[in-house]
Amino acid sequence: MDRRLLVLAVGMFAVGTDNFVIAGILPSISMSLNTSASAAGQMVSIYALSFAILAPVIAALAGGWSRKFLLMSALGIFVVGNALSAVATDLNTVLVSRALAGLGAAMFAPTALGAAASLVAHEKRGRALAIVTAGLAGATALGAPIGTFIGGLGGWRGTLWSVAGLGLIAMIGVSLMLRTIPTPPRITLRERLRPLRDSRIALTLLTTLFAYGGLLMVYTYIGLTLDHITKGNIGVLAGILFLWGVAATAGNLLSGRLVDRFGSREIINGALIVAAINFAALPWTSAHIGTGLVSVAIWGISGWGLNVPQQHRLVTLAPHVAPLLLALNNTALYAGLACSGLLGGIVILVIDVHYLSLVGSASIFVALVMAELAHIRIIRRASLEPRETADA
Q: What is the pTM of this model?
Protein backbone atom coordinates (compact mmCIF):
# COMPACT_ATOMS: atom_id res chain seq x y z
CA MET A 1 0.00 0.00 0.00
CA ASP A 2 1.20 3.51 -0.84
CA ARG A 3 2.45 5.01 2.44
CA ARG A 4 1.34 8.48 1.36
CA LEU A 5 -2.26 7.30 1.14
CA LEU A 6 -1.93 5.51 4.47
CA VAL A 7 -0.86 8.77 6.12
CA LEU A 8 -3.92 10.53 4.73
CA ALA A 9 -6.11 7.64 5.93
CA VAL A 10 -4.71 8.05 9.46
CA GLY A 11 -5.68 11.72 9.34
CA MET A 12 -9.20 10.82 8.19
CA PHE A 13 -9.39 8.25 10.99
CA ALA A 14 -8.53 10.96 13.52
CA VAL A 15 -11.08 13.39 12.05
CA GLY A 16 -13.80 10.72 11.97
CA THR A 17 -13.06 9.50 15.49
CA ASP A 18 -13.26 13.04 16.83
CA ASN A 19 -16.64 13.34 15.15
CA PHE A 20 -18.23 10.18 16.59
CA VAL A 21 -16.45 9.54 19.89
CA ILE A 22 -18.13 12.35 21.83
CA ALA A 23 -21.37 10.33 21.95
CA GLY A 24 -19.66 7.61 23.98
CA ILE A 25 -18.16 9.98 26.57
CA LEU A 26 -20.98 12.53 26.72
CA PRO A 27 -22.36 11.46 30.13
CA SER A 28 -18.94 11.75 31.79
CA ILE A 29 -18.31 15.12 30.13
CA SER A 30 -21.59 16.54 31.43
CA MET A 31 -20.81 15.29 34.94
CA SER A 32 -17.24 16.60 34.88
CA LEU A 33 -18.22 20.06 33.65
CA ASN A 34 -21.28 20.15 35.90
CA THR A 35 -23.64 20.79 33.02
CA SER A 36 -26.62 19.03 31.45
CA ALA A 37 -26.30 16.33 28.80
CA SER A 38 -28.29 18.60 26.50
CA ALA A 39 -25.72 21.38 26.82
CA ALA A 40 -22.76 19.01 26.53
CA GLY A 41 -24.31 17.52 23.40
CA GLN A 42 -23.71 20.82 21.64
CA MET A 43 -20.05 19.76 21.42
CA VAL A 44 -21.18 17.50 18.58
CA SER A 45 -23.24 20.25 16.96
CA ILE A 46 -20.48 22.85 17.08
CA TYR A 47 -17.87 20.51 15.58
CA ALA A 48 -20.21 19.33 12.82
CA LEU A 49 -21.53 22.82 12.06
CA SER A 50 -17.99 24.18 11.83
CA PHE A 51 -17.14 21.39 9.38
CA ALA A 52 -20.33 21.78 7.32
CA ILE A 53 -20.06 25.54 6.88
CA LEU A 54 -16.31 25.93 6.56
CA ALA A 55 -15.41 22.95 4.34
CA PRO A 56 -16.67 24.51 1.07
CA VAL A 57 -15.53 27.99 2.12
CA ILE A 58 -11.98 26.89 2.94
CA ALA A 59 -11.80 24.78 -0.23
CA ALA A 60 -12.66 27.88 -2.28
CA LEU A 61 -10.51 30.42 -0.41
CA ALA A 62 -7.46 28.17 -0.15
CA GLY A 63 -7.70 26.79 -3.67
CA GLY A 64 -4.31 28.19 -4.65
CA TRP A 65 -2.42 27.18 -1.50
CA SER A 66 0.19 24.45 -1.39
CA ARG A 67 -1.62 21.17 -0.63
CA LYS A 68 1.07 20.10 1.84
CA PHE A 69 0.91 23.41 3.69
CA LEU A 70 -2.88 23.18 3.83
CA LEU A 71 -2.79 19.61 5.18
CA MET A 72 -0.15 20.49 7.78
CA SER A 73 -2.06 23.61 8.87
CA ALA A 74 -5.32 21.66 9.07
CA LEU A 75 -3.87 18.94 11.28
CA GLY A 76 -2.10 21.51 13.45
CA ILE A 77 -5.36 23.36 14.09
CA PHE A 78 -7.12 20.03 14.69
CA VAL A 79 -4.54 18.96 17.29
CA VAL A 80 -4.65 22.32 19.09
CA GLY A 81 -8.46 22.25 19.15
CA ASN A 82 -8.56 18.81 20.75
CA ALA A 83 -5.79 19.66 23.20
CA LEU A 84 -7.74 22.74 24.34
CA SER A 85 -10.86 20.60 24.75
CA ALA A 86 -8.89 18.11 26.85
CA VAL A 87 -7.74 20.78 29.34
CA ALA A 88 -10.92 22.88 29.37
CA THR A 89 -12.65 23.34 32.71
CA ASP A 90 -15.88 24.96 31.52
CA LEU A 91 -18.40 24.36 28.74
CA ASN A 92 -17.78 27.63 26.87
CA THR A 93 -14.08 26.84 26.43
CA VAL A 94 -14.96 23.32 25.28
CA LEU A 95 -17.41 24.62 22.67
CA VAL A 96 -14.92 27.14 21.28
CA SER A 97 -12.21 24.49 21.08
CA ARG A 98 -14.63 22.11 19.35
CA ALA A 99 -15.27 24.76 16.72
CA LEU A 100 -11.50 25.07 16.26
CA ALA A 101 -11.14 21.29 15.85
CA GLY A 102 -14.01 21.37 13.34
CA LEU A 103 -12.16 24.04 11.36
CA GLY A 104 -9.12 21.77 11.17
CA ALA A 105 -11.29 18.86 10.02
CA ALA A 106 -12.98 21.06 7.41
CA MET A 107 -9.59 22.02 6.03
CA PHE A 108 -8.22 18.48 6.08
CA ALA A 109 -10.93 16.14 4.77
CA PRO A 110 -11.63 17.58 1.29
CA THR A 111 -7.93 18.39 0.80
CA ALA A 112 -6.93 14.82 1.69
CA LEU A 113 -9.41 13.35 -0.80
CA GLY A 114 -8.23 15.70 -3.53
CA ALA A 115 -4.59 14.93 -2.75
CA ALA A 116 -5.26 11.18 -2.85
CA ALA A 117 -6.70 11.48 -6.35
CA SER A 118 -3.74 13.56 -7.57
CA LEU A 119 -1.01 11.31 -6.14
CA VAL A 120 -1.80 8.28 -8.30
CA ALA A 121 -2.42 7.48 -11.95
CA HIS A 122 -5.93 8.08 -13.29
CA GLU A 123 -6.80 4.38 -13.41
CA LYS A 124 -5.92 4.00 -9.69
CA ARG A 125 -7.88 6.97 -8.34
CA GLY A 126 -10.86 4.93 -7.21
CA ARG A 127 -8.64 2.67 -5.15
CA ALA A 128 -6.78 5.66 -3.70
CA LEU A 129 -10.01 7.36 -2.65
CA ALA A 130 -11.24 4.10 -1.13
CA ILE A 131 -8.06 3.79 0.97
CA VAL A 132 -8.35 7.32 2.35
CA THR A 133 -12.12 7.05 2.89
CA ALA A 134 -11.49 3.78 4.76
CA GLY A 135 -10.10 6.01 7.52
CA LEU A 136 -13.60 7.39 8.11
CA ALA A 137 -15.15 3.91 8.02
CA GLY A 138 -12.52 2.71 10.48
CA ALA A 139 -13.34 5.62 12.77
CA THR A 140 -16.97 4.51 12.81
CA ALA A 141 -16.20 0.84 13.46
CA LEU A 142 -13.14 1.17 15.72
CA GLY A 143 -12.30 4.77 16.61
CA ALA A 144 -15.50 5.59 18.49
CA PRO A 145 -15.66 2.38 20.61
CA ILE A 146 -11.91 2.46 21.37
CA GLY A 147 -12.14 6.13 22.32
CA THR A 148 -15.14 5.35 24.53
CA PHE A 149 -13.21 2.52 26.19
CA ILE A 150 -10.25 4.85 26.81
CA GLY A 151 -12.68 7.30 28.37
CA GLY A 152 -13.84 4.58 30.73
CA LEU A 153 -10.26 3.91 31.83
CA GLY A 154 -8.75 7.38 32.01
CA GLY A 155 -11.65 9.80 31.73
CA TRP A 156 -13.00 11.76 28.77
CA ARG A 157 -9.93 14.01 28.71
CA GLY A 158 -7.78 10.96 27.96
CA THR A 159 -10.00 10.22 24.96
CA LEU A 160 -9.49 13.70 23.52
CA TRP A 161 -5.75 13.54 24.17
CA SER A 162 -5.62 10.27 22.22
CA VAL A 163 -7.47 11.92 19.30
CA ALA A 164 -5.00 14.81 19.41
CA GLY A 165 -2.18 12.24 19.37
CA LEU A 166 -3.62 10.62 16.24
CA GLY A 167 -3.74 14.02 14.56
CA LEU A 168 -0.12 14.66 15.54
CA ILE A 169 0.99 11.30 14.09
CA ALA A 170 -0.78 12.14 10.82
CA MET A 171 0.84 15.60 10.81
CA ILE A 172 4.31 14.11 11.21
CA GLY A 173 3.52 11.60 8.47
CA VAL A 174 2.43 14.33 6.06
CA SER A 175 5.60 16.26 6.81
CA LEU A 176 7.86 13.28 6.11
CA MET A 177 6.11 11.42 3.30
CA LEU A 178 4.19 13.93 1.21
CA ARG A 179 6.90 16.03 -0.33
CA THR A 180 5.04 17.34 -3.39
CA ILE A 181 1.31 17.34 -4.10
CA PRO A 182 -0.11 18.85 -7.31
CA THR A 183 -2.26 21.95 -6.74
CA PRO A 184 -5.67 21.60 -8.43
CA PRO A 185 -7.36 24.36 -10.44
CA ARG A 186 -9.05 26.89 -8.21
CA ILE A 187 -12.86 26.74 -8.03
CA THR A 188 -14.73 29.68 -6.51
CA LEU A 189 -17.39 29.26 -3.82
CA ARG A 190 -20.07 30.41 -6.26
CA GLU A 191 -19.03 27.71 -8.71
CA ARG A 192 -19.09 25.13 -5.93
CA LEU A 193 -22.64 26.05 -4.95
CA ARG A 194 -23.97 26.40 -8.51
CA PRO A 195 -25.30 22.78 -8.67
CA LEU A 196 -27.80 23.70 -5.92
CA ARG A 197 -29.84 25.54 -8.56
CA ASP A 198 -30.87 22.14 -9.92
CA SER A 199 -33.94 21.09 -7.89
CA ARG A 200 -33.09 17.39 -8.33
CA ILE A 201 -29.73 17.90 -6.68
CA ALA A 202 -31.09 20.23 -3.99
CA LEU A 203 -33.78 17.71 -3.02
CA THR A 204 -31.23 14.88 -2.94
CA LEU A 205 -29.02 16.89 -0.59
CA LEU A 206 -32.04 17.69 1.59
CA THR A 207 -32.64 13.92 1.76
CA THR A 208 -29.14 13.51 3.21
CA LEU A 209 -29.67 16.42 5.62
CA PHE A 210 -32.95 15.16 7.09
CA ALA A 211 -31.96 11.48 7.04
CA TYR A 212 -28.73 11.90 8.98
CA GLY A 213 -30.26 14.59 11.14
CA GLY A 214 -32.62 11.88 12.36
CA LEU A 215 -30.24 8.93 12.29
CA LEU A 216 -27.50 10.67 14.23
CA MET A 217 -29.79 12.41 16.71
CA VAL A 218 -30.03 9.21 18.73
CA TYR A 219 -26.32 8.50 18.24
CA THR A 220 -25.33 11.81 19.81
CA TYR A 221 -27.19 10.87 23.00
CA ILE A 222 -26.72 7.09 22.72
CA GLY A 223 -25.30 6.78 26.23
CA LEU A 224 -28.62 8.07 27.57
CA THR A 225 -31.08 6.54 25.11
CA LEU A 226 -29.69 3.02 25.59
CA ASP A 227 -29.04 3.19 29.33
CA HIS A 228 -31.51 0.34 29.95
CA ILE A 229 -29.05 -1.89 28.12
CA THR A 230 -25.73 -0.39 29.23
CA LYS A 231 -26.81 0.33 32.85
CA GLY A 232 -24.05 2.95 32.90
CA ASN A 233 -21.28 0.46 32.05
CA ILE A 234 -18.84 2.21 29.69
CA GLY A 235 -17.50 -1.13 28.45
CA VAL A 236 -20.96 -2.24 27.34
CA LEU A 237 -21.49 1.11 25.60
CA ALA A 238 -18.18 0.69 23.77
CA GLY A 239 -19.32 -2.77 22.64
CA ILE A 240 -22.61 -1.34 21.33
CA LEU A 241 -20.72 1.36 19.42
CA PHE A 242 -18.50 -1.35 17.94
CA LEU A 243 -21.57 -3.32 16.83
CA TRP A 244 -23.04 -0.16 15.28
CA GLY A 245 -19.78 0.57 13.46
CA VAL A 246 -19.44 -2.97 12.09
CA ALA A 247 -23.08 -2.92 10.95
CA ALA A 248 -22.55 0.48 9.35
CA THR A 249 -19.51 -0.77 7.44
CA ALA A 250 -21.46 -3.85 6.29
CA GLY A 251 -24.39 -1.70 5.20
CA ASN A 252 -22.08 0.59 3.26
CA LEU A 253 -20.48 -2.34 1.41
CA LEU A 254 -23.77 -4.18 0.80
CA SER A 255 -25.58 -1.14 -0.57
CA GLY A 256 -22.91 -0.66 -3.24
CA ARG A 257 -23.72 -4.06 -4.72
CA LEU A 258 -27.46 -3.56 -4.38
CA VAL A 259 -27.36 -0.20 -6.15
CA ASP A 260 -25.57 -1.75 -9.13
CA ARG A 261 -28.34 -4.36 -9.35
CA PHE A 262 -31.53 -2.44 -8.51
CA GLY A 263 -30.72 1.26 -8.94
CA SER A 264 -30.50 3.97 -6.31
CA ARG A 265 -34.21 4.75 -5.77
CA GLU A 266 -35.12 1.31 -4.42
CA ILE A 267 -32.18 1.23 -2.02
CA ILE A 268 -32.68 4.81 -0.81
CA ASN A 269 -36.38 4.26 -0.13
CA GLY A 270 -35.82 0.83 1.41
CA ALA A 271 -33.11 2.10 3.75
CA LEU A 272 -35.20 5.09 4.86
CA ILE A 273 -38.35 3.04 5.46
CA VAL A 274 -36.50 0.40 7.49
CA ALA A 275 -34.66 3.08 9.48
CA ALA A 276 -37.86 5.03 10.23
CA ILE A 277 -39.71 1.91 11.44
CA ASN A 278 -36.71 0.78 13.50
CA PHE A 279 -36.47 4.15 15.24
CA ALA A 280 -40.22 4.30 15.85
CA ALA A 281 -39.91 0.99 17.73
CA LEU A 282 -36.65 1.79 19.52
CA PRO A 283 -38.17 3.13 22.78
CA TRP A 284 -39.56 -0.37 23.36
CA THR A 285 -36.92 -2.57 21.69
CA SER A 286 -34.16 -0.81 23.67
CA ALA A 287 -35.71 -1.96 26.94
CA HIS A 288 -34.18 -5.43 26.48
CA ILE A 289 -30.64 -6.28 25.48
CA GLY A 290 -31.56 -8.83 22.79
CA THR A 291 -34.00 -6.67 20.84
CA GLY A 292 -31.88 -3.60 21.57
CA LEU A 293 -28.79 -5.07 19.92
CA VAL A 294 -30.84 -6.17 16.90
CA SER A 295 -32.16 -2.61 16.59
CA VAL A 296 -28.63 -1.18 16.79
CA ALA A 297 -27.50 -3.54 14.00
CA ILE A 298 -30.48 -2.59 11.80
CA TRP A 299 -29.78 1.08 12.54
CA GLY A 300 -26.17 0.77 11.40
CA ILE A 301 -26.96 -1.21 8.25
CA SER A 302 -29.87 0.94 7.06
CA GLY A 303 -28.34 4.25 8.12
CA TRP A 304 -24.99 3.87 6.40
CA GLY A 305 -26.50 1.78 3.60
CA LEU A 306 -28.10 5.05 2.52
CA ASN A 307 -24.86 6.89 1.79
CA VAL A 308 -23.76 4.98 -1.33
CA PRO A 309 -27.10 5.23 -3.23
CA GLN A 310 -27.26 8.92 -2.38
CA GLN A 311 -23.80 9.40 -3.85
CA HIS A 312 -24.78 7.27 -6.85
CA ARG A 313 -27.88 9.40 -7.48
CA LEU A 314 -25.84 12.61 -7.41
CA VAL A 315 -23.10 11.28 -9.68
CA THR A 316 -25.70 9.95 -12.14
CA LEU A 317 -27.41 13.34 -12.27
CA ALA A 318 -24.27 15.35 -13.08
CA PRO A 319 -21.17 13.19 -13.63
CA HIS A 320 -19.18 16.17 -14.97
CA VAL A 321 -19.23 17.82 -11.52
CA ALA A 322 -19.22 14.62 -9.43
CA PRO A 323 -16.45 15.72 -7.00
CA LEU A 324 -18.32 18.93 -6.18
CA LEU A 325 -21.58 17.06 -5.60
CA LEU A 326 -19.94 14.50 -3.34
CA ALA A 327 -18.38 17.32 -1.32
CA LEU A 328 -21.79 19.00 -1.00
CA ASN A 329 -23.33 15.68 0.10
CA ASN A 330 -20.66 15.40 2.78
CA THR A 331 -21.48 18.94 3.90
CA ALA A 332 -25.19 18.04 4.07
CA LEU A 333 -24.35 15.00 6.20
CA TYR A 334 -22.37 17.10 8.68
CA ALA A 335 -25.10 19.74 8.69
CA GLY A 336 -27.52 16.95 9.60
CA LEU A 337 -25.22 15.89 12.43
CA ALA A 338 -25.06 19.49 13.68
CA CYS A 339 -28.85 19.77 13.62
CA SER A 340 -29.22 16.40 15.36
CA GLY A 341 -27.19 17.52 18.35
CA LEU A 342 -28.95 20.87 18.57
CA LEU A 343 -32.51 19.62 18.07
CA GLY A 344 -31.93 16.52 20.17
CA GLY A 345 -30.60 18.67 23.00
CA ILE A 346 -33.78 20.73 22.96
CA VAL A 347 -36.07 17.70 22.68
CA ILE A 348 -34.62 15.87 25.70
CA LEU A 349 -35.35 18.93 27.82
CA VAL A 350 -39.10 18.44 27.29
CA ILE A 351 -39.57 14.67 26.75
CA ASP A 352 -38.06 11.47 28.12
CA VAL A 353 -34.73 10.85 26.35
CA HIS A 354 -35.84 7.27 25.58
CA TYR A 355 -38.43 8.68 23.16
CA LEU A 356 -35.90 10.78 21.26
CA SER A 357 -35.87 8.20 18.46
CA LEU A 358 -39.49 9.08 17.63
CA VAL A 359 -38.34 12.55 16.62
CA GLY A 360 -35.51 10.96 14.67
CA SER A 361 -38.03 8.71 12.91
CA ALA A 362 -40.09 11.74 11.89
CA SER A 363 -36.98 13.40 10.43
CA ILE A 364 -36.18 10.22 8.47
CA PHE A 365 -39.76 10.21 7.10
CA VAL A 366 -39.27 13.78 5.88
CA ALA A 367 -36.11 12.55 4.15
CA LEU A 368 -38.19 9.87 2.41
CA VAL A 369 -40.55 12.57 1.11
CA MET A 370 -37.57 14.59 -0.14
CA ALA A 371 -36.16 11.49 -1.87
CA GLU A 372 -39.42 10.81 -3.69
CA LEU A 373 -39.76 14.45 -4.74
CA ALA A 374 -36.24 14.22 -6.14
CA HIS A 375 -37.21 11.07 -8.06
CA ILE A 376 -40.29 12.79 -9.52
CA ARG A 377 -38.12 15.67 -10.73
CA ILE A 378 -35.60 13.20 -12.16
CA ILE A 379 -38.31 11.34 -14.12
CA ARG A 380 -39.79 14.60 -15.35
CA ARG A 381 -36.41 15.86 -16.58
CA ALA A 382 -35.65 12.47 -18.15
CA SER A 383 -38.86 12.69 -20.21
CA LEU A 384 -37.62 15.98 -21.63
CA GLU A 385 -34.04 14.76 -22.14
CA PRO A 386 -34.21 11.19 -23.50
CA ARG A 387 -30.47 10.70 -23.20
CA GLU A 388 -30.63 11.04 -19.42
CA THR A 389 -31.20 7.82 -17.51
CA ALA A 390 -33.84 7.60 -14.81
CA ASP A 391 -32.17 4.97 -12.63
CA ALA A 392 -31.33 7.60 -10.04
A: 0.81
